Predict the structure.
Amino acid sequence: MRYISLIAALALALTAATAHAASKSQAEKAIAAASAAVKKAGQTGHEWRFSQKFIKKAKAAAEKGDYDKALMLANKAKSEGELAAAQAKAEKDAGIPAYVHEEVKGK
């Protein structure tokens, strides 16, 4: 009986592990969503430093077939893009003068 329980537990663990593996389609969709979020942040002038690097690494991982890594990196880039856009809005709403942003860009 213990043997059957052990086999059932292993089968369940293997099924759960493979059920979470990302597919090529999921990785491509995540990369596209990340690119859009980062582009939107860039349009506000608040793109974060490593967002493009994460997208580049996500594309490279997807090309190698490592869709889990690609998905993780794309999600990270998307989060950065969304947070950067939110930061831009928050700073705009805070009344920070435009010339402050221009001085930062010029350096």
Summary: The chain has one domain: 22-106. Residues 22-106 form one domain. Confidence is low (pLDDT under 50) at residues 8-12, 14-19.
